[in-house]
Design the sequence.
């Protein structure tokens, strides 16, 4: 199939790009053939975030709409930041980077579905259930993508419901795959596009609860239950007073190989601060996803090339201290659309023409914001308190102190200590959690995970702790892999077995994450 | 005196058990309306067991015969019943069928012939202000719909195994009437045995599932023995853990993420009760759990639990079921 | 080969059911809607038969609100040729009313070689519209068909009954309602999804009569009664069997 523009990923970045492109085409009287490929069965089902959204990109994308027209849940009103210990909390002043006044609490799933509706109204083709598995190239030019096959059995042989891969050629391919995008990584490696620091990631695990007690503020916490040598914190946002999103995020460079973020979230729920809200309530959804945390120094040197641009989380446009990435994603989509449109108008979408996308991003608030906080996350590689002090000083000085780049190792290289304490599992089990993610992947699916050979018991244990979905288990010293459990969070893709795209529609079915 | 028709079901000349449930349901309606129950048996002649119907409340038992009525003749049966409902001095107040395989095929045809709607798969029926009120499960049993039937007659089909037959002796006067209905254009050519081993766990009325507590694949034999004791109505299922371990074929899997089974009786043996498994079998009518861990989550969902060594309990259960068979 | 397939837009089977404010229907906030799975078999059956015949037309018909157009487009993406939506916001609780509306449309668009339905919708489990339409069209009908062959004007169908398989025959044209096992529905291909946008989809508003079934309310099922541990070890078995027999009445 031939398209003018093929957008890989139906998230905020990809859809914003599609919408702006379609609009530019209409205004100009050029009918652009735009296709968005989304691996989930329906838009939103693989999207997960906190989320507290900065409305600025949406306002630019839809200048005729008011904030009240956007699919936000509620404006941020009260907020609180706490430092937790095992049994209590200390309220600390909200760090300047975490001021959320003017922002909105939202469900990224609802935002994506809304954007999808707008895109389809404008004639964009949204193809759900079609994961892009590889790039089609002509010389150094990206010519499109090939989708993943469906209907294979456990041995990889076609069953009666086999559906062959599709080749989609396009004049421009926009990679908006989200965190740990496979094609984005492949392109950067192939084209030798590096970054000053390797990209690093955090893993977030989140639950949505229908609560008896209403919550009237957004809450962020630091400290317990995360060990002091791990970077991260928790969040608790009311989508409605009695519909609460609760999650915990940890940087994947933690040293304790027995750290299990699933266990930490279950523990967090028992803390007095949260327990009173969850008492008598019901867990309605669960999910997990990684977040690129490397910041400014981990951005690829360029995010454009011959026939290709990279958007959103796939490029690493996330600001860790403010926990924001959605509006950067949409803004990058907007910039990409404008660049692509101009490039197509003037002929071919060569690397030269598409470089303008990089210029737009570099001159925008995306890079301004990320530059200011470029070392905040990296400072934490020396542990929480030292990092905290450094981070505090950076904030106060607007990034001028500790301004030289702090070199960072990749998560996979972070030294792991031998297993520590791993007490029992409060709350729900991993298998229960996977069920609550809406995952109903067929059990006969071939494994999409590339696991090394000769995995030792210690490594198997490590994988089983890292993966929040119970894909990996250590049984009698051997590694057992349960691929259907996978919710595409990509955590082990960062640290161990490689994730590859599998049959469309597999994985979670998030509704309001 | 108005009539409530109870459409019974025979196979090979013998009444199926569900017929007594239909008569029981019809009797309940008739009592509330002050009506009579007329049990209808369609076939080539009186069916075995028809004489019991009086005991369940049939005032009359009418056998409707016709050419080709020996086996299920959808069009002929539908016309015969619809004619019976309309004929006579007054239109019947209600026509009650079973929501069995045959009933689900027959009842809509009867309703359409009568020009009215059908409340299908009903689990409860009462009469309020002279009108039939029925309860029917919707959304796979996740909700119950309460509906009022205003048709004359009201047509409904009853979910099997819900209207427990109750003795309400009535005259049960038997008669045979030649239905003025040709068999019709749809013919049952044969009834053949389902493929061997084709009793699907998703559809078997009794499912006995084994988990890792069975310790090794060969031990599933004790579950197969228990299944046999139930005489062909039971399927042996397996938790995902044992299927993944390769002990049991994938087709036996119960509690796969998203797969729902709803047998009348679900016996979970050596299964701790992961939430996906629980959600998959939660709508089973009766759940029995056998596990050595008294804190296993499955006991929270089971109606009856037995704590202990499954290797002792299951064979004992097999023996008990066999001796009661 | 002219085949009509009647389909329905239904809530996904994983939906958490909440009762709407009116106390009678599903609260559809955030609910995912899909093409009724049993109807997928019907669409696939129609497509396969048209392909085998070499030529013909597969027309998809739905009764529902404006959003049912998406569902029709799914069937068009699978390969159906055109669609018709009988648009109404109030889907009747009485399947006979639905059957009458569908029959009128089928009569206007006929004659048909085959009229296919899924055996039942997974939201209301009514299993009735198909055979009712057959009665109104005066066509032979076989329901819940898990295997179908048509040769020389005769349809031979297999359907599952309790513990056995019934083999049924009738002449075509006929109405068939499809069950699992009859075929494996295809995934819509990319090309199919794009082509579906251009295929004709006619929207015809309909106003329907009341019918003989009135919904008084929708409620969650009764909470499961708390279970209990009957006893320990093999010694508990006689008590268990007694309870299963006398209390639970499943033995």
Sequence:
């Amino acid at each position: 199939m031939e398209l003018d523009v093929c957008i890989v990923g139906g998230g905020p970045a990809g859809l914003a790009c599609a919408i702006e492109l379609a609009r530019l085409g209409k205004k100009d009287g050029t009918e652009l053939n735009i296709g968005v490929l989304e691996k989930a069965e329906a838009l939103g089902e693989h999207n997960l975030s906190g989320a507290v959204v900065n409305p600025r990109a949406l306002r630019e994308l839809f200048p005729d709409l008011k904030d009240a027209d956007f699919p936000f849940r509620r404006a941020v009103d009260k907020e609180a930041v706490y430092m937790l210990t095992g049994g209590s909390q200390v309220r600390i002043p909200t760090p300047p980077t975490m001021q959320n006044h003017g922002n909105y609490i939202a469900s990224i799933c609802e935002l994506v579905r809304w954007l999808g509706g707008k895109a389809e109204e404008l004639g964009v083709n949204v193809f759900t259930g079609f994961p892009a598995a590889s790039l089609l190239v002509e010389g150094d030019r990206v010519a499109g993508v090939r989708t993943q096959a469906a209907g294979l059995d456990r041995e990889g042989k076609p069953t009666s419901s086999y559906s062959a891969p599709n080749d989609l050629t396009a004049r421009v391919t926009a990679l908006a795959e989200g965190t740990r995008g496979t094609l984005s990584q492949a392109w950067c490696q192939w084209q030798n596009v590096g970054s000053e620091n390797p990209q690093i990631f955090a893993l977030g695990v989140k639950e949505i609860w229908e609560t008896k007690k209403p919550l009237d503020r957004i809450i962020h916490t630091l400290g317990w239950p995360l060990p002091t040598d791990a970077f991260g914190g928790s969040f608790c946002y009311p989508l409605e007073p009695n519909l609460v999103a609760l999650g915990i995020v940890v940087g994947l460079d933690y040293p304790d190989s027995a750290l299990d973020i699933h266990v930490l979230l279950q523990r967090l729920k028992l803390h007095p601060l949260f327990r009173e809200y969850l008492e008598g309530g019901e867990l309605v959804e669960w999910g997990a996803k990684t977040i690129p945390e490397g910041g400014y120094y981990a951005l690829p040197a360029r995010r454009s090339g011959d026939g290709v641009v990279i958007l959103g989380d796939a490029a690493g446009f996330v600001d860790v201290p403010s926990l924001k990435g959605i509006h950067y994603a949409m803004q990058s989509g907007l910039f990409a659309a404008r660049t692509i449109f101009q490039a197509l108008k003037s002929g071919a979408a060569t690397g030269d023409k598409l470089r303008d996308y990089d210029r737009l991003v570099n001159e925008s608030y995306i890079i301004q914001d990320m530059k200011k906080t470029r070392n905040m996350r990296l400072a934490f590689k020396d542990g929480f308190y030292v990092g905290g002090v450094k981070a505090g000083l950076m904030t106060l000085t607007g990034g001028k102190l500790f301004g030289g780049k702090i070199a960072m190792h990749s998560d996979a290289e972070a030294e792991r200590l031998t297993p520590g304490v791993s007490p029992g599992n409060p709350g729900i089990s991993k298998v229960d959690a996977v069920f609550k993610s809406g995952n109903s992947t067929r059990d006969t699916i071939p494994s999409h995970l590339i696991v090394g050979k000769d995995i030792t018991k210690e490594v198997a244990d490590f994988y089983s702790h890292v993966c929040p979905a119970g894909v990996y288990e250590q049984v009698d010293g051997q590694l057992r892999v349960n691929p259907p459990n996978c919710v595409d969070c990509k955590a082990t893709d960062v640290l161990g077995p490689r994730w590859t795209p599998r049959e469309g529609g597999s994985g979670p079915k998030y509704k309001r994450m | 005196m108005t009539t409530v028709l109870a459409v019974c079901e025979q196979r090979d000349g013998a009444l199926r058990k569900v017929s007594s449930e239909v008569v029981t349901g019809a009797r309940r309606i008739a009592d509330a309306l002050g009506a009579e129950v007329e049990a209808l048996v369609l076939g080539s002649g009186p069916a075995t067991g028809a004489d019991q119907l009086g005991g369940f409340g049939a005032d009359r038992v009418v056998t409707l015969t016709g050419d080709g009525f020996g086996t299920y003749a959808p069009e002929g049966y539908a016309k015969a019943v619809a004619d019976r409902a309309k004929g006579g001095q007054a239109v019947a107040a209600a026509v009650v069928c079973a929501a069995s395989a045959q009933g689900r095929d027959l009842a809509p045809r009867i309703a359409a012939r009568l020009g009215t709607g059908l409340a299908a798969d009903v689990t409860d029926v009462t009469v309020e202000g002279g009108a039939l009120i029925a309860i029917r499960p919707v959304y796979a049993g996740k909700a119950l719909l309460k509906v009022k039937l205003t048709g004359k007659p009201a047509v409904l089909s009853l979910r099997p195994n819900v209207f427990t037959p109750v003795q309400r002796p009535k005259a049960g006067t038997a008669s045979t009437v030649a239905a003025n209905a040709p068999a019709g254009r749809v013919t049952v050519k044969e009834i053949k045995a389902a493929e061997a081993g084709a009793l699907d766990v998703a559809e078997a009325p009794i499912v006995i599932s084994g988990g890792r507590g069975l310790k090794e694949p060969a031990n599933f034999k004790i579950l197969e023995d228990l299944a046999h004791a139930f005489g062909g109505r039971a399927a042996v299922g397996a938790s995902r853990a044992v299927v993944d371990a390769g002990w049991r074929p994938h087709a036996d899997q119960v509690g796969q993420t998203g797969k729902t089974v709803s047998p009348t009786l679900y016996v979970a043996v050596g299964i701790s009760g992961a939430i996906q498994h629980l959600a998959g079998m939660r709508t089973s009518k009766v759940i029995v759990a056998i596990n050595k861990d008294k804190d296993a989550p499955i006991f929270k969902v089971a109606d009856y639990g037995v704590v202990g060594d499954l290797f002792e309990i299951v064979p004992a259960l097999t023996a008990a079921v066999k001796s009661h068979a | 080969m002219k085949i009509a397939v009647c389909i329905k837009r239904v809530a996904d089977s994983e939906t958490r059911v909440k009762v709407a404010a009116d106390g009678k229907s599903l609260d559809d906030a955030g609910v995912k809607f899909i093409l009724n799975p049993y109807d997928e078999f019907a669409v696939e059956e129609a497509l396969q038969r048209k392909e085998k015949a070499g030529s013909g037309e597969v027309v998809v018909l739905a009764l529902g609100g404006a959003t049912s157009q998406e569902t029709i487009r799914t069937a068009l993406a699978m390969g159906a040729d055109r669609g018709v939506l009988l648009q109404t916001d109030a889907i009747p609780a009485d399947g006979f009313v639905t059957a009458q509306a569908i029959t009128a449309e089928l009569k206007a668009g006929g004659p048909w070689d085959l009229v296919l339905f899924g055996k039942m919708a997974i939201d209301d489990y009514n299993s009735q519209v198909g055979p009712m339409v057959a009665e109104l069209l005066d066509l032979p009908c076989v329901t819940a068909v898990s295997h179908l062959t048509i040769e020389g004007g005769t349809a031979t169908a297999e359907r599952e009954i309790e513990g056995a398989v019934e083999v049924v025959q009738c002449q075509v044209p006929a109405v068939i309602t499809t069950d699992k096992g009859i075929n494996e529905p295809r995934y819509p291909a990319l090309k199919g999804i794009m082509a579906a946008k251009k295929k004709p989809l006619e929207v015809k508003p309909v106003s329907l009569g009341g019918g003989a079934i009135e919904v008084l309310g929708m409620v969650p099922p009764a909470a499961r009664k708390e279970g209990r541990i009957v006893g320990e070890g093999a010694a508990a078995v006689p008590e268990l069997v007694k309870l299963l027999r006398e209390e639970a009445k499943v033995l």
User: Anything to note?
Assistant: Chain A has three domains: 2-62+109-198+295-372, 76-104+199-292, 376-405. The mean pLDDT of chain A is 89. The CA atoms of residues 387 and 507 of chain A lie 36 Å apart. The first strand of chain A starts at residue 2 and ends at 8.
